[in-house]
Specification:
Structural class: alpha+beta
CATH architecture: 2-Layer Sandwich
Number of helices: 2
CATH topology: Glycoprotein, Type 4 Pilin
Largest sheet: 4 strands, antiparallel
Distance between the termini: 84 Å
Order of helices and strands: HHEEEE
CATH class: Alpha Beta
Strand content: 5-15%
Strand order of the largest sheet: 1-2-3-4
Radius of gyration: 32 Å
CATH superfamily: Glycoprotein, Type 4 Pilin
Length: 171
């Protein structure tokens, strides 16, 4: 390389190290840049985490509704093989899920069992079903016979003899 180009190379090096114009390639982030990155990540997490939790909860409700349909089909199979009477408890059925996605036992009540105080009712106090109640206690693990009770709003219910399967709050 000729000597005529050496001064230009030296001037470029001084400009790069002078702090004006170009940044050095081996320099790190400033504190302000790191704080801004942290703020952006916190905002993204504040948006993403509740959205993710809501999505997981909707998946659990959907799984619970599918389980209730499966249990209702098992009850119908039991009825057709046992003189058209529903089982006294879910223990008489085989091959069904016993726990909901939140870890609680599925609730079943045969109306012929003689427990009228436990029959679940809608907001007009009409029974939800004609022969049996089938539902999940939901995420809070609590329930009350009327659907308007706060503890029953998150229950997943089998209502109108299978015409509605979903959250009690949507019924």
């Amino acid at each position: 390389m000729s000597a005529a180009f050496e001064p230009h190379r030296e001037v470029g090096r001084q400009f790069a190290h002078s702090g004006r114009g170009c940044r050095r390639h081996d320099a790190g982030f400033t504190l302000l840049e790191l704080v801004l990155i942290g703020i952006v990540l916190a905002i993204l997490a504040a948006i993403a985490i509740p959205t993710y939790k809501g999505h997981i909860e909707r998946l659990k409700v959907g799984q619970c509704a599918a389980d209730l349909r499966e249990i209702a089909l098992a009850i119908e199979r039991f009825r057709t093989t046992n003189g058209f009477r529903p089982p006294d408890s879910l223990a008489q059925l085989t091959g069904i899920p016993l726990n909901d996605p939140w870890g609680n036992r599925y609730q079943y009540l045969n109306f012929d069992a003689g427990t009228p105080g436990k029959i679940r009712k809608d907001h007009n106090l009409h029974p939800l079903n004609s022969e049996f109640d089938l539902y999940s206690l939901g995420a809070d693990g609590k329930s009350s016979p009327p659907l308007t009770a706060k503890s029953s709003r998150d229950d997943v219910i089998w209502a109108r003899d299978g015409g509605f399967v979903g959250l009690a709050s949507d019924y």
